[in-house]
Amino acid sequence: MIVAKGLSKVYGEFRAVDGIDFEVHRGESFGILGPNGAGKSTTMKMIAAVSKRTDGELTILGKDPNLKGPEIRAHLGVVPQKDLLDRELKAWENLYIYGRYFGLSKKFLKPKVEEMLAFAQLEEKRNSKVEEMSGGMQRRLAIARGLINEPEILLLDEPTTGLDPQARHVLWDRLFRLKENGVTTVITTHYMDEAEQLCDRLVVMDKGKIMAEGTPAGLIKDYSSKEVLEVRFGTDRNEATAPQLATIAERIEVLPDRILVYVEDGDAALEKIHALGLRPVTSLVRRSSLEDVFLRLTGRSLVD
Amino acid sequence: MSDLKFVPGQAVNVRHAMRVGAFRVAEYRLRNMAKWWDAIIAFGIGNPVLYLVSVGIGIGALVDHSTGGHGIGGVSYLQFVAPALLASAAMQGMSDEVTFPVLEGFTWSKYFFAIGGTVISPKQIVNGIYLAAFVRGIWTVLTYGLILLAFQAIPMVSFFPLILSSLLAGCGWTAVMMAVSAHIKDDDGFFAIIGRFVIAPMFLFSGTFYPLSQMPIYLQWIGWISPLWHSTDVGRVLTIGQPTQPWLMVVHFAYFVAMFIGGFAFTYPVFARRLAE
Amino acid sequence: MITSIATSMAVRIAEKRAGKFGSGVYSGRAGQLVERNFLAFKSSNWLVVISGFVEPVFYLLAFGLGIGKLIGGVTDGSGHTVSYAQYIVPALLATSAMNGAIYDSTWNVFFKMHFGKIYQAMLATSLGSLDVALGEIGWALLRGLTYSIGFMLVVAPMGLIPSWWGLLAIPGATLIAFGFASVGMGMTSFMKNFHQMDWINFFMLPMFLFSGTFYPISVFPEWIQWIIRALPLNQAVELIRGLTLGNLNLAMAGHALYFVVMIAAGLFFTTKRLTALFMS
Ligand SMILES: Nc1ncnc2c1ncn2[C@@H]1O[C@H](COP(=O)(O)OP(=O)(O)O)[C@@H](O)[C@H]1O
Ligand SMILES: [Mg+2]
C-alpha cells in the first residue's frame, strides 16, 4: 500500500530523512521505531501526503503524493503527534466537522459520529470541550477523528507519548481492535514495548536512516542474544569490572549506571560472575528487547 | 465495548469531496462563529447605536452648533460621518474573521494542519475562511445600514448602493489582512501593533470625522492609501451628493479590486508553503 | 548557589512574616513579579510598547486639531472657554491610563493564567496571591506612568496644559490606572474563555464614547448624566481635566476617593480569587 525508495527530506542543509526504503502491506501494522529527532514525524508527514519529499520515490495507494495529494488523503486517517483538535468545539463536533472535510453527508455522519465516540469510549464526553478531557481522552478522540472517513491506512505518530501507563493500555486495546478489523496502520514510537506490542513488522530508524527491518521477534533474534543479565557494581566500579565480564559473554554493553551482559542463559552467567569472585550490588535477568537491538545498532539508548 | 465494521476506503467520494472543500471550511468557520453569536449580535447592533448616539447628539451637536446648523457641506454632522462609520464597521467586522482565525489555525491551535491532512487543499482553506468572513460582512453592513436608516443618517435610496460599496471595501481590506496574518509566525503583540499603528490612524485620518482636505497635506496621504477613505468618498457621493469626477470613482473601485486580488495572490502561496512544512 | 540563596531568603521572609496579619497571602515580595515582567518585557516587541504611547497622540491629532477646527471652543466646568484640544487632552490622558491598565491587567493576565500557567508556578513558591496581584498591577502602573509622562511631554509644549496644576495629572493618571488595573485583574480572574473577555471591550466602548471625553455630558438629559457620572471613566476625566485646566474644586477629592475605593475593592477580590483558584 505504501512503497518508499530512497525517500529523503532535506530542511536547508539538514537531512531529516536520508534515503530510506520500506514497504507497507495491506492489513499489517507497520512500525517506525526511533529516538527523538530520528525523522519519524517527517517521514509520517510525507506519507500523509502533506509534506513534499525532497528526493526519492514514494507511492501511496498506488499514487504519487506530489501529484494526487487530495485523492490520497481522502483514504488516509491521520493522528498527528500533537492532536490538533479544535478546542472551541465539543467532542462530537470535532468528529463531525472533520468528517465534513471529506465531503461526507450529514446523513452518513450522524450515526458514524456516535459509532466513533463509542469506539473511543467517549460517549460520556460527547458534549465536552477538548479542555475538559484528559490527555488520554484527547488522543482517543484524535484517533476516532482519524477513522471518521473509513480510511484504508491509519497513520499514528507517537500515539502514546505523554500518556500515563493506564491511558496507554486503554489506547493499545483500541489499536488492537483496529488491527482485528483489518485496518492497515503505520505507527511511529520511541517506546520499544509499544513497538513490540503493536507492530507486525517494523523498521528501526536513527538520524534519518533505517538501521534494520523485520518482525519484533526477528530483530531481537538477529541483533541480540536470548537473555540479558543486568548487573550494577556502583557507578565508579562498572567501568573497571567490564574487562573481566567480557570473558564470559559474547557481548557486553557498559552504560553509566550498569552493565548489560548478552548471553543465552542469564542465570548461568550470573553464577560464572560469582565464580570470578565478583559481587554485583544488584543483578537482574530478563529477556532481550528491542531496546537492546537499538543499543546494538547505534550504541545509544532509545530514550535519553 | 464496540467494534468497528467498515470496508476501508469506501466512504469517501473523492471528486465530490474535492469540489465542496472550500464550503466545508466555511461551514466550520460559521459553526465556530455561531458560538459567539451573542457577542456578534451585540457588537453588530450595539456598536452602531453607540457611535451614532455619541456622534449624533454629542460631537454632532457641537459641530452643528458652531457651524450655525449647517454641519459640513450643508448636511448634519451625523449624515456626514455615517458612510465612514458604515465602511469602517464592514472592514473591521470582516477582517476580524480572517486575522484571528488565521493566527489560531497556524500558530495557536495549529488546527489548519489538521484540515490540511484531509482532502482539502490549502487554497480551499483560504477560500473557506474568506467565505465565512464575507457572510459576517453581509450581516454587518445590513444591520449597520438599517440602523443608519433608523437614525435618518442616510437616505433610503442610497441604502443598497451604500452597503454594497462598503462591502466591497471590506472585501478588499479583508483580503489584505488575510495576507498579513498568513505571514505572521508568532503573534508577539501583532494585534496591538496593527490595531494602533494601522487601524487607529486609518480610522482617524481617512476623512472620517471631517473632510480629508482639512487635514494638513503631510497627513493626507494616509487617506489616499486608506481603503476607508476610498469607501467613505464613494459613500458621500451616494448619500449626501458630494460632487465627484468619474475617474475618481473608477480609482476607488479599482483600488478595492486591486487589494482583493493582491491579498489573495499573497495568501495562497503562504498557505501552501506553511501547510507543507 | 543562586537558588540556595534565594531559597534561604524566601525561608527567612516566610519566617519573619509568619503569624503576622495576612501572612497567608502576602510575603512582601511583589517586587519579584515586577522584576520578572521587566525581564520578559526587555525581550518583548518594542513596537507594542511604543504603540501604547502613540494612540492618544493620534486621537489628539485627529480630534483636537481636525474636529477642533470645526468646533472652535468649548465651555469648561467653570464657565471659561477653552480650545477643543485643551478640552480633550485630559480626557485622552485618562482614557489611555484606563486602556493601558485594562490591557495589562486583563488580556495579559488572562494569557498568563490560562496559557502560561505562570501563576501556579509562582504561588508554589513563597509568593502569596496578594504579591501576585500587587506585582502584576504594579507593573501595569509602571508602564502607565511612562506613557502618561510621554504624553505630557508632547502636549505641554503645545500649550495644551494651561495650568501648573497639570503636573499633578501624572500621579492622577497613575491613581486612575491603579483603580482600573485592580478591578480589571479581579474581573479577569473570573473569566473562563476569550468569549467572556470580549465583553470587556464591549463595555469599554460606550464608556469611552459617553464619559465626557469628546463633548460635555450636559448634552444628555439629566438622568443619563447621573448614570455617566457613576462610571469610572467620567470620574477619571473630571479629575484630570480639573487639574490640567486648573479648575480645582471639592468634587475632585470625591473623584480621587472613588478610585481609592476601586483599588481596595479590586485588590480584595483579586487576592481572594487567586487564593481560591490556586492555593486551595
Ligand atoms: N520544519 C522543519 N524545519 C527544519 N528542521 C526540521 C523541521 N521539522 C523537523 N526538523 C528536524 O528534523 C529532525 C527530525 O525531526 P522529526 O521528524 O520530528 O523527528 P522525530 O519525529 O523522529 O522525533 C529533527 O532534528 C528536527 O529538528
Ligand atoms: Mg516526532
Specify the CATH homologous superfamily of one domain in chain A: YebC, transcriptional regulation domain
Strand % of chain A is 25-35%
Strand line-up in the sheet with most strands of chain C: 1-2
N→C terminal distance of chain C: 31 Å
Order of helices and strands of chain A: EEEHEHEHHHEHEHEEHEHEEHEH
Instruction: Give the low-pLDDT segments of chain C.
Output: 1-21
Could you say which small molecules are bound to this protein? adenosine-5'-diphosphate, magnesium ion
Computed Rg of chain A: 22 Å
What average pLDDT do the residues of chain A reach? 91
Helix content of chain A: 25-40%
Widest sheet, order of strands of chain A:
5-6-7-3-8-9
Q: How many discrete domains of chain C?
A: 1
Report the structural category of chain C.
mainly alpha
Shape label of chain C? globular
What oligomeric assembly is this protein in? heterotrimer
Walk me through this protein's architecture:
The complex is a heterotrimer of chains A (about 300), B (about 280) and C (about 280). With about 300 residues, chain A is α/β, with parallel strands linked by helices. Chain A has eleven helices and 13 strands. In chain A, strand 11 and strand 12 (about 260-265) form a beta hairpin. In chain A, helix 5 runs parallel beside helix 6 and helix 8 packs across helix 11. Chain B is mainly alpha-helical and about 280 residues long. The mean pLDDT of chain B is about 90. By secondary structure, chain C is mainly α. Chain C has one domain (about 25-280). Chain C has twelve helices and two strands; from the N terminus they run H-H-H-E-E-H-H-H-H-H-H-H-H-H. Chain C has helices spanning about 1-15, 30-40, 45-70, 85-105, 105-115, 120-125, 130-155, 170-190, 195-210, 220-230, 230-245, 250-280, and strands spanning about 75, 80-85. At the A-B interface, helix 2, helix 3 and helix 4 of A face helix 1 and helix 4 of B. Magnesium ion (MG) binds near residues 40, 81, 157 and 158 of chain A.
